[in-house]
Design brief:
single chain; about 200 residues; mainly alpha; 7 helices; membrane; transmembrane
Length: about 200
């Protein structure tokens, strides 16, 4: 696992099912890498960016593996940790809004609903930005571009909302299951952005 993977060209006799299963297994492994890289909490965006880039390489049949993921993570975390801090700050603001709703603040339900929707939109934009990330890219520019994609491609955004819901449900049911699902969410973000690009 620590060695760079050999070039993942499809074998001539390899079935479509075998290729799909291999990609699914790669997503599960990538989810474990993402979870480990995101343990400091503020490194979540950089971890997703490295995971998405690894999966793009896998789909393009290029060399990759843990070494490539680690190099990408180091490049992404240089500015990506600021995005992580901003995400946690947004979560804290929404938590305060929800507490205000529970305490009976006038207009609280509306404020709480807007806050939760804004947080979901920001999470989707963050995933899309991670899927667009390349070494040397500006996180600010990526987030602006991903924000536009989030609004202009509602179908793709709803797909990612569903992926986030699956992660949340998996975490509630079994934390190890949620770890594996993270890779599938990164793959979904890559697929959504590729679909948007082709359109």
């Amino acid at each position: 696992m620590t060695e760079a993977r050999a070039e993942a060209r499809p074998e001539p006799g390899e079935s479509r099912f075998s290729r799909g299963f291999a990609l699914f297994a790669e997503c599960l492994l990538t989810g474990v890498w993402i979870a480990l890289a995101a343990l400091p909490l503020v490194t979540g965006p950089a971890a997703f960016a490295a995971g998405a880039r690894h999966l793009r390489r896998r789909l393009a049949h290029e060399r990759g593996g843990l070494r490539g993921f680690t190099a990408d993570f180091r490049a992404a975390v240089r500015r990506g940790w600021l995005v992580g801090v901003a995400g946690w700050a947004a979560l804290a603001v929404v938590w305060v809004d929800v507490r205000a709703v529970r305490d009976g603040l006038p207009g609280g339900p509306l404020v709480g609903s807007v806050g939760v929707l804004a947080l979901i939109g920001a999470a989707v934009a963050g995933l899309r930005a991670a899927a667009l990330w390349r070494p040397g890219a500006s996180w600010r520019a990526l987030l602006a571009r991903a924000g536009r994609h989030t609004v202009l491609d509602p179908a793709g955004s709803f797909l990612l909302v569903g992926g986030l819901a699956v992660v949340a449900c998996s975490a509630w049911f079994s934390a190890p299951l949620a770890v594996a699902v993270l890779g599938a969410v990164a793959a979904a973000a890559v697929a959504v952005e590729e679909r948007h690009r082709r359109r």
